[in-house]
Amino acid sequence: MSISSRPQRGRAGGAVRSSHYSRSASSRRHGASGARTQGRPTHHGGARTRSRGGYNSSRRAQGRPQQRGRRKDAPIDISRFINENVAPNATPDVYEPIHTFSDFALLPQLAQAVAHKGYVTPTPIQDKTIPHILRGCDIVGLANTGSGKTAAFLIPLIQKLLLVPDEQILVLAPTRELALQIEEEFVGLTRSLRLHSVVLVGGMPIGPQMRRLRSHNHLIVGTPGRVMDLMERRSLSLAHTKTVVLDEADRMLDMGFIGDMRTILATMSQSRHTLFFSATLSKEIEKLVHEFLCDPVTVSVRTRDTSKNVHQSVIKVNGRDKVDILHELLVQKDFGKVIVFGRTKHGVEKLSRLLSKRGIKSESIHGNKTHNQRVRSLEAFKRGRAQALIATDVAARGLDIPNVSHVINFDLPGTHDDYIHRIGRTGRADKSGFAITLVD
Ligand code: AMP
Fold this sequence. Notes:
Layout: H1 18-21, H2 23-30, H3 108-116, H4 124-134, E1 139-142, H5 149-163, E2 169-172, H6 176-189, E3 197-200, H7 206-212, E4 219-222, H8 224-232, E5 243-246, H9 249-254, H10 258-267, E6 273-278, H11 283-292, E7 297-300, E8 310-316, H12 322-330, E9 338-341, H13 345-357, E10 362-365, H14 371-382, E11 388-391, H15 393-396, E12 406-409, H16 416-423, E13 433-439
Parallel strand pairs: 1-6, 1-7, 2-4, 2-5, 3-4, 5-6, 8-13, 9-11, 9-12, 10-11, 12-13
Helix pairs in contact: 4-5, 5-6, 8-10
């Protein structure tokens, strides 16, 4: 039985009807090109990146987009939100790695740390990138979160740090959460290796970060805004930093960090080792690759648009109250751990409060919350103290939360790429997941 028929059982509400869940009905209604959505404003206006010239204009909320321009993607096609002919628990493709970790000739202490982490076989992105990174090549890695890309760049870069302890590595990431996850992975891989790291993100007091920068850090992970701030305050100099990772570069571009990225990279050593990871390869991204990298090796592990493990369907709202529909879904038995995506920070906060009032334990995560509030919400959700996490795209980007049963698009994503990122929060680690999109 597919999810498409599940929500109707025992429901009195008229809008949640079987025809609205089924691909055939939806395709018939919308046409193959999703004509219903034509004319929907899929991009939110806003000037493209404001050039900031120098370091002196970064006194703003850190980790926040400078502007809200959206990438110019194809209009949303609702038919791409449906894949009901795919069994959610279909056997995933099995990748046969070419290498084992021992093929990489890692230093014994690092090999031990990798084994201690429980990594036995390299994931595809690790299999394909680690040998090149160890050789010092620039890399364009096309991979999503969940592919093991963090260890793909950290393992060879830790080897570099062990061989040349004076080295310093900078990792730029679009969000605080991703930056913290990267540092967590670094700490996990370097226990007892005497390597030090610091996270430079907004939403946290800047003083302790400035103090941490007084001593040598082998790894600096930060969001572009806070890194700029610290450079401006002369607490951070990257003049001798020769290795940089741009993680989720497409997202940093989307969030308007391109000016910061340019400035930061311009202050670094000219003979740079640059690793560039992105989930998508648009024309703009190709331009960035050209600008930032030197003769890179490109590796792609994106075999398909969306995970086979995610069963996608839509619910037609038909003028009903969307909160009622959401509520009806959340009280169902299988909806154990649900991420609900909303468009605006205010809307997300409001929805979380409304659901809580209705007795659904919910937490919210969006850019108006302080770092500590976001961490608390995430922890409550991860540990099962909240059933629903109501999130904006930016806040949820890159989150690796195990066992998310459902992703619900309460508001439509702005682009199909955003859709892919949203639904990628479920169906992870070979588990099956469900994505439901509410459409007018
Ligand atoms: P990432 O794409 O970097 O967010 O990684 C996703 C998850 O995969 C994380 O929980 C990692 O700890 C895990 N992981 C990374 N590499 C491996 C590996 N070789 N074997 C098993 N798990 C891994």
